[in-house]
Amino acid sequence: SRNIDPADLAVVSVTSIAGDNVKNAISSSARIEGDCRHFSDEVSQKIETSIRRIATGVAAAHECTVEILYDRVFVPLINDADSVDHCVNAAIAVFGADNVNAHGAPMGASEDFARALTFAPGAFVIIGNGDSAPLHNSGYDFNDDALAYGTNWFVELTRQRLKSKS
């Protein structure tokens, strides 16, 4: 946290620690796994550099070795500004300006769509699904009524984009 601007999201979570699973002896090795969340490739690089520096230093202090496998499974999801404008305009046309939050705060969730945005401009949009439990929660219940809202928005977005191309 001392190497990254406080205005940038940088979350490092240790999600698993495992040893040799021997109850009556000190493990000969340990495996630590985790996850990192960030909004830029620059922050991702700083996180990786810090993890490598700290882990190597701790290992040296305890006269042991460390092997670090840092996989960038998730890339930051960065919306294209023009695509966001198109999405917002369509949403306002369908839902009304009072029902559209065009300036939502960045989210730390990972999303496969981020990979698609590395190849083509686009925007990740949240339409809303009611007050159910969060996604990936056993209590989550998809609100089927949201399908109509999403469909209407996609139709309007397509209509506006095709109209602007003609």
Number of helices: 4
Helix percent band: 25-40%
The CA-CA distance between the termini, in Å, is 50 Å
Structural class: alpha+beta
Protein architecture, described:
The chain is α+β, with helices and mostly antiparallel strands. It has helices spanning 41-61, 81-95, 113-116, 146-165, and strands at residues 10-18, 31-38. It has two domains: 10-61, no CATH class; 81-165. It has four helices and two strands, in the order ββαααα. α2 (81-95) packs across α4. The chain is elongated.
How would you summarize the topology of this molecule?
Elements: E1 10-18, E2 31-38, H1 41-61, H2 81-95, H3 113-116, H4 146-165
Antiparallel strand pairs: 1-2
Summarize the structure.
The protein is of the alpha+beta class and 166 residues long.
Key structural traits:
2 strands; 4 helices; 10% strand; alpha+beta; 166 residues; elongated; two-stranded antiparallel ribbon; 36% helix; 2 domains
